[in-house]
Amino acid sequence: MSLQCLITLVSVALFVSIEAQENCANSGSPFAMSDRKGLVDAHNKFRSSNARGLEKDGPNGGNAPKASNMYKMSYSCELEAIAQAWANKCLYKHSGHDGLGENLYTVWPAQNNNSPLQDAPASWWSELVEDGVGQYSEDFTMTDDVFNAGTGHYTQMAWARTTEVGCGISHCRNGRKSQSIVVCNYREQGNYIDEKIYEIGEPCSNCNEFTGSTCSRAEGLCVKP
């Protein structure tokens, strides 16, 4: 076999492998690739805006401080499969899955499409604007007061060291009532009490969580290798 043929075969195999991973073929979810891209893009858009100091913190305050160590998220098929398996149970409560963060969103009646995927991240993030963090913790340390203020979905979305997200959706019926449930799982898990949601500072000035990290300067986000 010629070297050129070998390179071609390796390239094709690599493409197939990447394509299968991106399509999350075994996750059981109804998502198109555009749904997955929309979810991770929404998370990164909010994180970028936060990192650059452009997000309002609470109804009466200024903006949330800039973040020096906030990482860009990637989409995980593994997390999607976990989230979809839980969403399929049609239980609007946390799964308690060890080692993973989790956000839940529901809407009545069931939408019978994937439109709740667009609404869920915005709903979770709105906790920063509606409830705020800085009034409870100026240095953005996660405290009981911050969590009890109703900001737990936002703080998981903004947790600086979280680099992966994967989601699932189910449209459920209970008698005459129906609802759509969105589940998103996160790695690394956030919301640890007495730990920083993120470090305050100039964007990308502290990308040291993972060896070899780089910076997406336009977004103000660190990038895990």
From TrEMBL:
Keywords: Signal
InterPro entries in the record: Allrgn_V5/Tpx1_CS, CAP_dom, CAP_sf, CRISP-related, V5_allergen-like
Signal sequence segment: 1-20
SCP domain segment(s): 34-194
Pfam family, one: CAP
SMART domains: SCP (SM00198)
GO CC terms: extracellular region
Superkingdom, natural source: Eukaryota
Protein's name in the database: SCP domain-containing protein
Organism: Steinernema hermaphroditum
